[in-house]
Amino acid sequence: MNIILRVLLAVYAFFLTIASMFAMLVTIKSDILSEAYTYLYNDVLAYRNPSILMFIVSSIFFCLSLTFLLSGFKPEGDKKAITKYNKNGDIRITLNSIENIALATSRKLNGIRDSKAFVTKVGEGVSITVKAIVLPDINIPLLSEDMQQKVKSAVEDCTGVQVDSVRVLVESIFTGYKSARVE
């Protein structure tokens, strides 16, 4: 739950506490309810501005009630880890560890100068993007296909997590020196 919802929940709980205290007072002294009704009917609802203000405040509390009610039904799955269940319990594998496996596998390939790996969670599986800098005179399509197969099999073998896709992005060709680029 983010900080805004927590602050709203605190305000909501405060006013709900006041309302419950009022309800407890009504059970002890029942004429308070009739006095409150008379005050609301004669002094608040009889005039336009207090009536509009009361409608706005009650609408805000109605919306807050719906927000908190619906937030309880929203699944909050872990976005930074994959959870696998077995007979002994559950195993959580972070996306960072999957990135490290993909990175180590891609850097072992001949023809790769440098690489970066990014993993996103897709349902119960992952999608991996590898950005690579390759050496010159390398067949990029063959290297990319080899990288896709090896990264996918390494991640699936090490973690047991299904890899939905492996995307390879060749960022540049390593030339060994930095040239001034004119555009």
From TrEMBL:
What is the protein name for this chain?
A: Alkaline shock response membrane anchor protein AmaP
Q: What residues form the membrane-spanning segments?
A: 7-28, 52-73
Look up the domain of life of the source: Bacteria
Q: Which NCBIfam families match?
A: anchor_AmaP (NF033218)
| Pfam families for the chain | Asp23
Instruction: Recite the UniProt keywords alphabetically.
Output: Membrane, Transmembrane, Transmembrane helix
Q: Which InterPro entries does this chain map to? A: Asp23
Q: Which family does it belong to?
A: Belongs to the asp23 family.
Do the record's keywords include Glycoprotein? no
